[in-house]
């Protein structure tokens, strides 16, 4: 097997993304943004950003659940106070125990301080439990707050937002950001707890003897600095491993997902993919081992320097003791304080790293929410549109971003209520785009569409949409039951079974559905237990039924029969013809035999409207429609095969 450029780039070089930017799998992806920013920032830059991130996290948490946020804040502070109180009580106990006199008397004298120590220790434990409980309840609320906010925006933005590259990337990063918000809030709480503990110890130590504070810092800072550096190193390695991780994610998908499973087997790709996986993991393991060596060196160095500093503090304490400048109890308390401070500092430094990196992702989320506002549709005037009399498309042009030619180019046409009209034209001539503009799914770059002579913008957008049903070419297979898949065609109405079945019958879907294991209640999603999948044509029937459900005043059907068998196709077009004269239908199809009955046919070419008229008029004109129709009809123009006589008959 020869090695391709992709394999070499993916498995061996971190810089491959820059060297081979055209390979989609090597493009920078969203989930690295925070990590990379974190890796590129110096340790001091991390501290500079902390206050803002902490404030953001508190704001989100407050919005999500005020009660639990307050509980977490209060218990965190309380816990810190208890830690300081515990240290002071410890010192009191030691003072009593180290005093002159008989031991039983000293113990009795120490009892009140001991009782205080026991109480604050118990309180601290209790506060810890309350914090944990409140945090557990807070996490899902924070998740709901940010995720719901994201979904409110993603379901409201105009369709053209999804055409912009930057928007799609932005949205992916924002999705990662919602996950990070929960972690950010948790990391901020832990950080504050660590800092509160640290502060409490520092205050207690100063109260015991001011000289002890610098001693405490000397003993704790080397370790803290080393652990921050080690965390930084881990993130740098993580950021540099982007290509490997993407490659691994890709391989995971290829080997474990349903879509690739058939080809994997038919081409015998199992060994090939497993080999690729082994190569990626070989590189990954080497890098992780090297990282482990560096991290261990760094933390060992911190421990050694910290140990020496701690030793020096103890020597200093000894000297002060000998000198009589510090009581024995204060010195003993200082030893305990150093250990408590080291524990709190270890928590705080780890959380600083967490807050910073999760904060970067959260920044993506917050940025997306701001930028997405540009894509929200303008609010309508609120006027409810009356029943359709006439639909006019006036000089409508629509250009997609980064496309030189307009997809719809200065089209003007009118459809009267009750008409069935067809949009016809070759692939890419702009039929679906024009239909999407009429369906209010896309905004034209120029021109207007009018409902009864007034531009769409003057009507209430939601109520306008209520009057229009659309069956799109790229229909969606909703992972719901068959009944729900049809019922969502009129989601505001009661999902009555008789209506659903009637719509299914009009789309030739009823018989297919009743044959499913649970009939209309069959779940159409194979990834769930008892879920079923349908053939392409069966799905298309259900989609058409969804469009028929509402008997909308304007029904737009874009290629509704491309996968249907002849019988189903005939039934579907019969149902469309049933609307003629009563309700308005816009039909897009390449099967021109089905548009012969249309009142009018509009022929598009490269976005422009080039012909219009009835079938007979257009055939008589001998233009593009006549050419396409004749071409297709020629395919059927064969002499019927001679039917052999039934067996046993005499010829
Ligand atoms: N989302 C999009 N972004 C960019 N270009 C697009 C997009 N959708 C369609 N186009 C382009 O716009 C032009 C018109 O496409 P449209 O889908 O409207 O054609 P159509 O007549 O419906 O084609 P078909 O018969 O193949 O369904 C084509 O050149 C197509 O490549």
UniProtKB/TrEMBL annotation:
Keywords linked to the UniProt accession: ATP-binding, Membrane, Nucleotide-binding, Transmembrane, Transmembrane helix
Domain ABC transmembrane type-1 as annotated: residue spans = 71-357
For whether the record's keyword set contains Repeat, the answer is no
Database matches in PROSITE patterns: ABC_TM1F (PS50929), ABC_TRANSPORTER_2 (PS50893)
Membrane-topology annotation of the record: Multi-pass membrane protein
Q: So which domain of life are we looking at?
A: Bacteria
Q: Which SMART domains match?
A: AAA
Would you tell me the Gene Ontology cellular component terms?
A: plasma membrane
One GO MF term on file is: ATP hydrolysis activity
- Ranges where the ABC transporter domain occurs: 393-631
Regions crossing the membrane: 71-89, 109-134, 191-212, 301-322
Q: Where in the cell is it found?
A: Cell membrane
Q: Name one Pfam family in it.
A: ABC_tran
PANTHER family referenced in this protein's UniProt entry, alphabetically: ATP-BINDING CASSETTE SUB-FAMILY B, HAEMOLYSIN SECRETION ATP-BINDING PROTEIN
Q: What is this protein called?
A: ATP-binding cassette, subfamily B
């Amino acid at each position: 097997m020869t090695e391709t450029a992709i394999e070499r780039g993916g498995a061996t070089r971190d810089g491959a993304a820059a060297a081979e930017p055209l390979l989609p799998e090597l493009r920078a992806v969203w989930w690295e943004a925070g990590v990379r920013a974190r890796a590129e920032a110096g340790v001091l830059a991390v501290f500079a950003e902390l206050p803002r991130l902490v404030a953001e996290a508190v704001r989100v948490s407050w919005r999500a659940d005020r009660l639990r946020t307050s509980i977490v804040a209060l218990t965190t502070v309380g816990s810190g106070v208890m830690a300081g109180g515990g240290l002071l009580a410890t010192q009191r106990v030691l003072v009593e125990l180290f005093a002159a006199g008989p031991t039983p008397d000293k113990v009795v004298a120490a009892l009140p301080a001991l009782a205080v120590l026991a109480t604050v220790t118990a309180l601290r434990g209790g506060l810890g439990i309350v914090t944990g409980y409140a945090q557990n309840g807070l996490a899902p609320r924070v998740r709901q707050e940010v995720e719901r906010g994201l979904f409110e925006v993603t379901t409201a933005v105009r369709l053209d937002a999804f055409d912009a590259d930057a928007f799609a990337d932005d949205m992916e990063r924002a999705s990662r950001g919602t996950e990070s918000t929960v972690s950010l809030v948790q990391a901020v709480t832990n950080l504050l707890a660590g800092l509160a503990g640290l502060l409490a110890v520092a205050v207690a130590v100063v109260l015991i003897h001011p000289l002890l504070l610098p001693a405490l810092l000397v003993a704790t800072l080397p370790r803290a600095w080393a652990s921050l550096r080690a965390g930084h190193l881990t993130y740098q390695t993580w950021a540099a491993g982007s290509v490997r991780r993407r490659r691994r994610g890709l391989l995971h998908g290829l080997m474990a997902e349903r879509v690739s499973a058939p080809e994997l087997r038919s081409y015998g790709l199992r060994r090939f993919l497993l080999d690729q996986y082994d190569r990626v993991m070989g590189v990954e393991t080497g890098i992780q081992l090297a990282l482990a060596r560096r991290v261990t060196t760094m933390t060992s160095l911190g421990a050694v320097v910290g140990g020496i500093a701690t030793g020096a503090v103890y020597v200093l304490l000894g000297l002060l003791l000998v000198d009589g400048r510090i009581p024995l109890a204060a010195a003993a308390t200082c030893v305990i304080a150093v250990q408590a401070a080291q524990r709190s500092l270890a928590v705080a430094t780890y959380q600083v790293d967490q807050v910073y990196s999760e904060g970067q992702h959260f920044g993506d989320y917050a940025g997306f929410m701001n930028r997405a506002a540009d894509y929200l549709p303008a609010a309508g005037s609120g006027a409810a549109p009356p029943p359709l009399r006439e639909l006019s498309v006036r000089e409508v042009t629509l250009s997609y971003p980064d496309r030189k030619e307009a997809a719809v180019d200065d089209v003007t046409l009118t459809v009267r209520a009750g008409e069935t009209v067809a949009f016809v034209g070759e692939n890419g001539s702009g039929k679906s785009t024009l239909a999407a503009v009429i369906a209010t799914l896309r905004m034209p770059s120029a021109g207007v569409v009018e409902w009864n002579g007034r531009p769409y913008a003057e009507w209430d957008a939601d109520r306008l949409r209520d009057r229009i049903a659309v069956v799109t070419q790229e229909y969606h297979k909703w992972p719901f039951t068959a009944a729900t898949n049809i019922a969502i065609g009129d989601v505001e109405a009661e999902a009555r079974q008789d209506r659903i079945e009637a719509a299914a019958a009009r789309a030739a879907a009823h018989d297919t559905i009743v044959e499913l294991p649970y009939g209309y209640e069959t779940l159409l999603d194979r990834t769930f237990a008892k879920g079923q999948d349908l053939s392409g044509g069966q799905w298309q029937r259900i989609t058409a039924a969804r469009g028929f459900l509402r008997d909308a005043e304007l029904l737009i059907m874009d290629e509704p029969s491309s996968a249907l068998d002849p019988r189903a196709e005939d039934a579907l077009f019969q149902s469309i013809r049933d609307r003629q004269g009563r309700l308005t239908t816009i039909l897009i199809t390449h099967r021109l035999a089905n548009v012969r009955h249309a009142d009018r046919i509009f022929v598009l070419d490269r976005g422009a409207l080039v012909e219009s008229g009835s079938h007979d008029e257009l055939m008589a004109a001998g233009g593009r429609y006549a050419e396409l129709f004749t071409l297709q009809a020629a395919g059927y123009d064969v002499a019927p095969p001679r039917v052999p006589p039934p067996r046993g008959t005499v010829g």
